[in-house]
Amino acid sequence: MTMVPTIGRELSNPPSDGISNLRFSNSSDHLLVSSWDKSVRLYDANADLLRGEFKHGGAVLDCCFHDDSSGFSVCADYKVRRIDFNAGKEDVLGTHDKPVRCVEYSYAAGQVITGSWDKTIKCWDPRGASGMERTQIGTYQQPERVNSLSLVGNRLVVATAGRHVNIYDLRYMSQPEQRRESSLKYQTRCVRCYPNGSGYALSSVEGRVSMEFFDLSEAAQAKKYAFKCHRKSEDGKDIVYPVNAIAFHPIYGTFASGGCDGFVNIWDGNNKKRLYQYSKYPTSIAALSFSRDGGLLAVASSYTFEEGDKPHEPDTIFVRSVNEIEVKPKPKVYPNRAV
């Protein structure tokens, strides 16, 4: 494992309050950022240019792209919005009964999926005219408040409070195809599906990540494991930091994790090893996203109030160039084996 000294360059005009999420576009280096300052911002990450901003009626808890200049946002004001930066307009797809925590757009199904603290997920057709009765496809009850969503192909993973994990096929949403309990003992912070569609990684407040597989066969389930990360020993005590963010590299399938310790680590999940650790960021890592070709990593350095209300560093977005050596899996070495 090697430490890389640089933390990247700061983007100008960052949000003025906590950053809830950031995501790169699938077709450019545009970066969409949601914040507790009630804003959704679109940046050109390469040019360090703020291309547009929308202000909502409450803290924006998540966002995702639709195309290169439009997307969706969900908010503490219970609303699900479609936002178009080129046209400079927004409209409301519909509402939940409580704050909406997360949003994903399925290119496979052409649907927006939202998860809320009202213990439901909802699916929306953004091609419909404005208004909930014309855009809402379905509502699906969850066992607890929804904390995180992730999509790969037609598969949707829903992680809720109470350590519940529901796995759906978007084509058959009447009930989950699998109901699971998290392998980790404490509250889930983030779930992200593997790019190859074989499973998902789950992180928690206890400084751990678990690697899970969809296949229920004995052989597949034998491959799952959990590991400790974002911890340090101090005065003989083990200090544990929540793992807030996971982002998979789109080419190599390795992944970055970000914790409240201010560090970003790069992991080779298949070979169970840490590849790199970047120098410490000013405060907690709230969100991470790789660009479409894996050449850039966006890092939200933003205090997540894990130690309550206290003076903290400003909320900042860093964009760093990613070297292949940092994210490419290393070949296994077999000593004493003839080549």
UniProtKB/TrEMBL annotation:
Start-end of each WD repeat: 93-125, 243-277
Cross-referenced InterPro entries: WD40/YVTN_repeat-like_dom_sf (IPR015943), WD40_PAC1 (IPR020472), WD40_repeat_dom_sf (IPR036322), WD40_rpt (IPR001680)
Keyword Repeat (UniProt): yes
Keywords tagged on the record: Repeat, WD repeat
Superkingdom of source: Eukaryota
Family matches, as SUPFAM superfamilies: WD40 repeat-like
Database matches in PANTHER family: MRNA EXPORT FACTOR AND BUB3 (PTHR10971)
The protein's name: Mitotic checkpoint protein BUB3.2-like
Species whose genome carries this gene: Camelina sativa
